[in-house]
Design brief:
Length: 367
């Protein structure tokens, strides 16, 4: 194997693939990158058996071949190569990386020991346009990052309804629901629970273009294929909670305020909230909503935001991080906030929008 590649392209590709390298030492091969050289490109792959990523990097390939190398060392070195081009070549059982004034040699493990990312692609579910893909960022914030004892809460549910496809995530403290999501050419499949980690990885990449989606029933995997990468994750074999029961049907207080003003208020209050269990209180009165935090060891902070208020005056408290996350993903302009009382869920919507809502469970605080 021998190939020459632009170092910037190599760095960019490895930066994505590195996210799938195992953080545990259960199998030495999972700590390695698989490198395959063939037909004008280098393919780099990694997997921790839960997700897998492969990226194609354009290269001048003088000799085909494949091998695996220690991922951390290889990635750290490439991240610090200052020269424009890098050459990778296999000599006996060692891999050499050279670049102008640099020459490094890596121990290897044969590529035959590297597990396949998937046995088969399975059926094509459809295609997600890049613009639609970005909408998933509004949902993924509500998925649990730690699988814990309830794996379903770390997933994102795609649910086919009579009114179209709904995408929902909930971690027990908050819920995001996006209606009318579009997967072009989607084949009917009632419910699919995707690992949120895979969606986060997709969203971490810029300019991914349109994404082809496949589901392998045999491997119980979902496969996202872009123009130069493949991202694989295991479907979650758990029952997602009945999320429709969580969504409030009515409210006693409706507040409409500006997203940017509210977000700035929450960020200011978060400075004090860090010392007070991350609690921010919303006090709703005619014409305004006041965001406040009270840290007895430091002081208090209040920020008043103009608002249109209908119904009862009210108070409610939330986790500051959950508030920041919710306001950050809502589009610019007016935010519609609905609540039925201090111990009932708070519902955030985009003014004039009908396809998205975000629910946060309140925190009980002493008056």
């Amino acid at each position: 194997m021998r190939a020459t590649v632009l170092t910037d392209n190599l760095r960019r590709g490895l930066g994505f693939v590195n996210h799938a390298v195992s953080s545990r030492n259960q199998l030495p091969i999972l700590l390695n990158f698989l490198i395959q050289a063939k037909k004008g490109e280098l393919k780099f792959s990694a997997t921790d058996l839960e997700i897998g990523i492969s990226v194609n990097v354009p290269a001048r390939v003088d000799e085909d071949g494949s091998i695996t190398v220690p991922a951390k060392t290889f990635f750290d070195l490439v991240s610090n190569v200052p020269y424009e081009k890098t050459t990778i070549s296999l000599k006996d059982s060692s891999l050499e990386l050279t670049s102008e004034k640099i020459k490094s040699t890596f121990s290897t493990i044969p590529s035959s020991e590297f597990p396949k990312l998937f046995e088969e692609k399975g059926d094509k579910v459809g295609e997600i346009k890049e613009g639609d893909l970005l909408l998933l960022g509004k949902v993924v914030i509500a998925a649990a990052e730690d699988i814990g004892s309830r794996p379903a809460l770390s997933g994102i549910l795609l649910s086919e309804t009579p009114l179209g496809l709904e995408v929902v995530a909930a971690d027990g403290y908050r819920l995001s629901l996006l209606k009318g999501f579009s997967i072009r050419g989607k084949k009917s499949k009632n419910r699919t629970l995707l690992p949120s980690r895979v969606i986060r990885e997709l969203l971490s990449q810029k300019n991914v273009g349109d994404i082809q989606v496949f589901v392998s029933e045999r491997g119980r995997q979902v496969i996202f294929e872009g123009s130069d990468f493949v991202l694989v994750g295991r479907l979650i074999e758990e029952n997602f909670p009945d999320y429709e029961k969580i969504i409030p049907l009515d409210f006693s207080t409706l507040t409409v305020f500006d997203k940017e003003e509210a977000l700035n208020a929450v960020r200011a209050c978060s400075v004090f909230a860090r010392e007070a269990a991350n609690i921010i209180k919303l006090s709703i009165k005619k014409g305004s909503v006041t965001f406040s935090s009270d840290a007895s060891s430091i002081g208090t902070n209040e920020v008043e935001v103009e608002a249109k208020v209908e119904g009862e005056e009210n108070e409610i408290a939330f986790n500051s991080r959950y508030l920041t996350d919710a306001l950050s993903v809502l589009k610019e302009g007016g935010i519609r906030f609905e609540m039925a009382g201090p111990l009932s869920p708070g519902v955030f919507k985009e003014e004039g929008g009908k396809n998205f809502l975000h629910i946060i469970m309140p925190i009980r605080v002493q008056s």
